[in-house]
Design goal:
about 550 residues; four-stranded parallel sheet; 14 strands; about 35% helix; globular
Length: about 550
């Protein structure tokens, strides 16, 4: 037979490797073909990944059809929703870098010719793209798709209706039986959550980056097209491997900035900022600063509005045209010469794309929902290195406010205060020691925002933190405050009653306390240490960088 495609299998030096693969049942004929790895985050433990067993099978079918030989290996896929409210949430962001490194280890160890990445949820997607950015082999990304929304009282909801229903029950608006009914209908099927949270934001970013086949990101998990796109992804990775097109040819400065434009244009999750920074760093492009990100945001209008920014869910977004329709509208702002996994440029792909099919969800570039981006970087004395807000989800009456501070040292303290009625209207909740090092692990402040919403306070209160936020949150929230409290950032010196000015239009976050008072407080500053189990969180605390640098480990 002709020379083996994979260099490691050639000659006498490749004999042991061939023998080991044959021990797994592979034939010599199969080993002469391009060896394609499938990094699958399949698990039966969460709906966003529970259909990857079937998707992985269709990817394998596509690889074999195109003349390759597939090999499947697994990686972890912790669920934010299941982890939230416990110590588990502190492991979610750190898991991103573990996922990237584990894929890197497996691929470099085996020397595969190509790589298919199967992931859908919050930190799994960026972790996989980070791995692709490190590796100089052909790669393609395929997600599992968003789930269909829940339907309650003739309205579509995502699973976060449960947290809001907790507030309704607390206020006596529903009884226990109605609460149980909501629990049963909240998550109706497989798929990533039905809103434009971090999961669907990052899947959309992957497509905009050119790492997924056009149209892939928004196909619902239970639609038949999902399996078709899996099959086509399997076929395409073999073509990429044979053409010698690597992930590093596709993940470039231009493609990452294209993805960032897309995130801004749709008002995606604030978490996308740090994930794109991490992918940028792993591609070897240096540091993507918040200042550079802010400059892009200032010249990118918001042309799509998807839940939680509006009533329209991911299925509505898909039917309106999804990522392709948005990219077609913002094409003048993109580098359309960027290469994609189709082997063609963005411009060539967009020639076949249809314009928006529902202007209530995706508007034309000359008629945006807002002239400013759906996300925004703020600076000021409270966050000189920058922090992130989501104007797309902020009520108009909270765009420029000055509010008295109510300080909490942890998420649990804040949640307890909200549920017990201790938080008054027109208050700025300050949650600190929740950053990459102080958390540690930079957990999401999902519950405090949902508690405010459930208690009817989200239209008058603000919440600022050195932690992160869920992509499902609505209201005036500002996260990623850097430097964090653990590193002596000014947020550590805020006291109850201090006035805090948040001005979204001018992108400012200011603590209105004079310098002399702050200097005096600084003299008495003592860093707070949280006790955590020995293990990875200790390691992450030592080696993680600031949120302003993507909270990557170095």
């Amino acid at each position: 037979m002709s020379t083996y495609y994979n260099e490691r299998l050639r000659g006498d030096k490749g004999a042991l490797k061939r023998a080991l693969y044959k021990a797994c049942g592979f034939s010599d004929e199969e080993l002469h073909k391009p060896l394609i790895a499938i990094a699958s985050s399949y698990t039966s433990a969460n709906p966003g990944h529970a259909n990857f067993d079937k998707i992985a099978q269709r990817v394998q079918d596509g690889i074999r059809t195109a003349g390759g030989t597939p090999f499947v290996f697994g990686c972890i896929a912790p669920c934010d929703g299941i982890a939230e409210g416990s110590i588990g949430m502190r492991y979610i962001l750190p898991s991103r870098d573990l996922i990237a490194s584990s894929i890197e280890c497996m691929v470099r160890s085996h020397g595969f010719d190509g790589l298919v990445l199967l992931g859908s949820c919050d930190k799994i997607v960026p972790g996989m793209l980070m791995a692709a950015a490190r590796l100089d082999i052909s790669a393609i990304f395929c997600n599992a798709g968003p789930m269909y929304p829940a339907v309650y009282n003739n309205r579509h909801w995502d699973g976060n209706i449960i947290t809001e229903a907790t507030g309704w029950k607390e206020r006596g608006l529903i009884d226990e039986a109605e609460f149980k009914k909501i629990e049963e209908l909240a998550e109706p099927c497989f798929g990533s959550c039905a809103m434009l949270g971090t999961a669907n934001t990052m899947c959309s970013a992957a497509e905009a980056m050119g790492m997924s086949l056009p149209g892939c990101a928004t196909i619902p998990a239970i639609d038949k097209e999902r399996m078709t796109w899996a099959y086509e992804s399997g076929k395409q990775i073999v073509k990429l491997a044979e053409a010698g097109i690597s992930a590093r040819d596709i993940i470039t400065r231009s493609s990452i900035l294209n993805a960032l434009r897309l995130v801004f244009a749709v008002g995606g999750s604030t978490n996308a900022v740090m994930h794109l920074q991490a992918i940028w760093a792993d591609r070897g492009l240096g540091e993507l600063t918040l200042k550079e990100i802010d400059e892009i945001g200032r010249h990118t209008p918001q042309i799509a509005s998807v839940y939680p920014a509006s009533e329209y869910d991911m299925v509505d977004y898909h039917l309106a045209g999804g990522v392709e329709a948005v990219m077609k509208e913002i094409a003048p702002l993109l580098d359309t010469a960027a290469l994609t996994v189709t082997g063609k440029s963005v411009a060539e792909n967009l020639e076949k794309a249809l314009p928006t099919r529902n202007e209530a969800v995706i508007r034309h570039l000359d008629n945006p929902f807002s002239e400013r981006a759906g996300l925004e970087v703020l600076t000021g004395n409270l966050s000189p290195l920058g922090c992130v807000a989501k104007p797309a989800a902020i009520p108009e009456n909270l765009m420029d406010v000055t509010l008295p501070a109510m300080v909490f040292e942890s998420e649990d303290e804040a949640v307890d205060a909200v549920w017990s009625g201790k938080v008054s209207r027109s208050t700025c909740l300050v949650l600190r020691y929740e950053g990459p090092k102080g958390g540690p692990g930079m957990p999401e402040m999902y519950r405090p925002m949902k508690a405010l919403e459930g208690m009817g306070l989200s239209s008058s209160c603000a919440l600022i933190t050195d932690g992160r936020f869920s992509g499902s949150n609505r209201g005036l929230f500002v996260g990623h405050i850097s430097p964090e409290a653990y590193e002596g950032g000014l947020i550590a010196l805020v006291e109850n009653g201090d006035l805090i000015h948040i001005d979204i239009s001018s992108a400012r976050l200011e603590l209105l306390v004079d310098d002399q008072t702050l200097e005096e407080r600084r003299k008495h500053f003592t860093r707070k240490e949280k006790e955590m189990p020995a293990g990875y969180l200790d390691i992450y605390r030592r080696i993680s960088l600031s949120a302003s640098q993507g909270a990557v480990v170095r």
